[in-house]
Amino acid sequence: MGHAQRTDEIFDVVNERDEVIGCEQRGEVHRLGLRHRAVHILVFNSRGEVFLQKRSMKKDTFPGAWDSSSSGHLDCGEDYDACAIRELREEIGLKIDKAPERLFKIAACLETGQEFVCVYRCQAEGPFTLHPDEIETGGWYTPEAVTRWMAERPGDFARALLLIWQKLNATA
Q1: pTM (2 decimals)?
Q2: Distance, first Cα to last Cα, the chain
Q3: ∠ CA 51-171-17 to the nearest 5 degrees?
Q4: How do residues 39-56 score in pLDDT, each as one tens digit?
C-alpha cells in the first residue's frame, strides 16, 4: 500500500467538540492545522510489556521517532473503533474482530497535532508483520523502561505518545 507519503488521503475535519464540519486532504489538514481525528493503540503482551514501533524515516511527521504500537488517522466517514481495527491490521498485521478496549480520549491540542485521539489497549503476543513503509522496527518494553527512557530522552518519541503515556500512568 505504501501510504506513508500519500498526501491525498481525505480526513474528516472537526470542531472543538469533535463534530464533523467537513472533509479535507491530508496535506491541507496538516498545513492549516485543522482539527481532525486519530487513534493510538497500545498492545501489551501477557508479561505486561508494551510493543512500541519506530516510525519509518519516510513518514511526514516524526520520522524515526518511537510511537504507539499502532496509530493512524480516521478516514473520512470512518469511526474511531473501525480505524483502530484497520490500523492494527495495516501497520502490524494484527487481526482482531472487535474494537480493542478504549482507555481514554485526548482533546485536540498542540501535542497531538490538533488531533482528537482515542487511545486503546489490547493484548497480543506477536510476532507482528510490520508495514515497511510505516515502521522501521519495533520492540517490547516494560512500562518502567519506557517511563525511564522518556524521562531521559523525550526527543526519541513522537509527541503524542509522550502525552498518552503521561495520561496512562496518571490513571493507572
Answers
A1: 0.92
A2: 37
A3: 95
A4: 999 999 999 999 999 999
Residue 60 CA: distances (Å) to CA of 3, 26, 30, 158 = 11, 11, 10, 12
pLDDT, one tens digit per residue, over 122-160 is 999 999 999 999 999 999 999 999 999 999 999 999 999
Lookup: cell for 31: 498545513
Which CATH number is 10-171 given? Answer: 3.90.79.10
Question: What's the CA gap between 90 and 20, in Å, rounded?
Answer: 25
**Per-domain boundaries in the chain:** 10-171
What percent of the chain shows pLDDT beyond 70? 95
Q: Which residue has the cell 480493542?
A: 100
Please return the burial class of 47, using the count of CB atoms within 10 Å of its CB with bins 0-12, 13-18 and 19+. exposed
**Backbone φ and ψ of 97, nearest 5°:** -85, -40
Cβ-count burial of 71 within 10 angstroms (0-12 exposed, 13-18 middle, 19+ buried)? buried
Q: Which class for 3: exposed (0-12), middle (13-18), buried (19 or more C-beta within 10 A)?
A: middle
- What backbone phi and psi angles, to 5 degrees, belong to 84? -60, -45
> Alpha helices, DSSP H only, in the chain?
26-32, 80-92, 143-152, 159-171
